[in-house]
Amino acid sequence: STDVSKFPTPPPRPARRSLAVPLTGGIFAVLIIFGGVLFIWLRAGPIREETPRFQSHAVTTPPGWFSEAAVSPDGNAVAFVSETEMGSDIFVQDIRGGAPIRLVSDGASNRDPAWFPDGRALAYTSEKSGKRSIWKVPRFGGAPVPILANACQPAISPDGKHIAFVQSTPGLSSRIAVAGLAAPGDVRVLTDKDGGLWEHENPAWSPDSKLICYNDHNDLWLVPARGGRARKLTDDDPNDYCPVWSPDGRHIYFCSTREGTTAIWRIRTGGGAPERVTTGSSSERNPSLSGDGRCLVYDTRAKMAGSIIDRRTGERRPLPQRDYFGEPALSPDGAAVVYCADLEGRLNLWRVRLNDGKPTGWPEKLLETDGMCSNTAWSPDGKWIAYQRMLQEKREVWVIPAAGGTPVQFSGDGGMNAQPEWSPDGRTISFISNRSGTYEIWAAPFKDGARAGEAVQLTHGEDVWGSHCWSPRGDRIAYLREDREGSDLWVMSVTGNTRPRRLTHRAGAVFASWDKASGKILVSAFWGGNRQVVKAVSPEGGGIEPAPNTAPSDPRSGVLEIEASADGRLFAVMERMAGGGVWALQAEKGAF
């Protein structure tokens, strides 16, 4: 049995972080859904005293995968990212169509295009140096020049004097920072742990260059560009991200998962009720506004999808979903799968029966609760399901009977507690928590449907940022850790006082699960490419080999998560599907 009180304290290891983290997005093919570009005005009335008329059209056309659109200040051109035979590159195209110009083609991962205020050049993120750094390239092409090392997601201030960006700091998640373009080495970090949960991303300047809007894990925040206390702009359960200011400074447009779909919304900069702008029928994201406010550009993205794969035949069966799907977990007997989905417009836990490995019947909802539920894990005896519940700024681990019933909170004791996993004997639940100041693996005993003792810290100074999993014998835990080489797989003993061992190098790992049948660790990672691919890693020597029947349903898609059934027959997978394009809404009069 697993007695957490007897776990040794692993020897301390220095926590190191860099910006060499995996890019979790993909670059997708154009999804031409005409209804997804119909502009709607809801409830709150016009943006101006007179609602502007508009024309909508697709900027990009098939074939190709396009995303991360950014309209030029004059509204005449659009920069975007497209995946090519060499990698992901930055292109610029006339907003009315025509042949795009490839600005960079170095075979690296190039993303996050952002215009300079005069429209003559763009900043972007590249991994050509082995780490994410910010570069500058002329609008019509030319030799790129570096601006900032160890930085990403650039945003140039409207006055052209400063650059805001995302930077990782030792022992912390990513933070918003600012530097002068005349002296980019003089960096000032603007946000800290009091400025939002986990990662701070997507900085956007106010028109007067005095404020920066950004998003944390769930909400929008505002922080003074010269430094000061950040304040929260949105404060509820839906995910709000990718903000952009209207040119008059009155509104912030952003992407949100409100009302059961992914769409563009807006909110007054002083706060208030958000207003929906686009329909969400094609998962609209990444809003961008021209300098005169007459053009709104965004991209459409394909959705997450889940399926059950028969490992013997490769046969794949989709699981029911709407706009969101995540974290599938198979029951120990292979008779059911539980996962997170928005089948009724909000994220909850759903169970689908499996008949001979095939989904059958409509999903059954396991619980009705406030907040958002995710990261499911089925107990080895099949009686319980652990999951993560997100309610405003709190993240806690809960447990619910697999047959349905009253959920019980398992974690506590402060900090954010997430991503539960069961020990093979079912007597322990491990989870990731930042209660010690960095994200580490903790574990607590479980008995009779509740926690049965104090939590014990298993890692020290590891800064565990992603998933973790137990070995079939319960003597080891594999986990993802980020350091100077990027995100990789490590393994540690829970029964002996040995140092953790690194199993991969520069893999760009995003998920790991232990395959009980083969004894190998299934790792979803970029492996030097542009999409997530699953490979099997030996926990002994770190040998890496292909994992049969784990390919995505479309070669342009990427497998984000995978779990094998206890008998080794089935895979439950979550993948990011290919698809997507760039669209423009142009006002005939007035402005956004």
Number of helices: 0
Euclidean distance between termini CA atoms: 62 Å
Oligomer: single chain
Bulk shape:
globular
Helix content: under 10%
Radius of gyration: 24 Å
Query: What structural category arises from helix and sheet content?
Result: mainly beta
Strand residues, percent: over 45%
Low-confidence stretches: 1-52
Mean pLDDT: 82
The major sheet is characterized as:
5 strands, antiparallel
Number of strand elements: 49
Summarize the SSE layout with pairings.
Layout: E1 54-58, E2 66-71, E3 77-83, E4 88-94, E5 101-102, E6 110-115, E7 121-126, E8 133-138, E9 145-148, E10 152-156, E11 162-168, E12 174-180, E13 183-189, E14 201-205, E15 211-215, E16 220-224, E17 231-232, E18 240-245, E19 251-256, E20 263-268, E21 275-276, E22 284-289, E23 295-301, E24 304-310, E25 316-318, E26 325-330, E27 336-341, E28 348-355, E29 358-365, E30 372-378, E31 384-391, E32 394-401, E33 408-409, E34 417-422, E35 428-433, E36 440-447, E37 450-451, E38 456-457, E39 464-470, E40 476-483, E41 486-493, E42 501-502, E43 509-514, E44 521-525, E45 533-537, E46 544-546, E47 558-564, E48 570-576, E49 580-587
Antiparallel strand pairs: 1-49, 2-3, 3-4, 4-5, 6-7, 7-8, 8-9, 10-11, 11-12, 12-13, 14-15, 15-16, 16-17, 18-19, 19-20, 20-21, 22-23, 23-49, 24-25, 24-48, 26-27, 27-28, 28-29, 30-31, 31-32, 32-33, 34-35, 35-36, 36-37, 36-38, 39-40, 40-41, 41-42, 43-44, 44-45, 45-46, 47-48
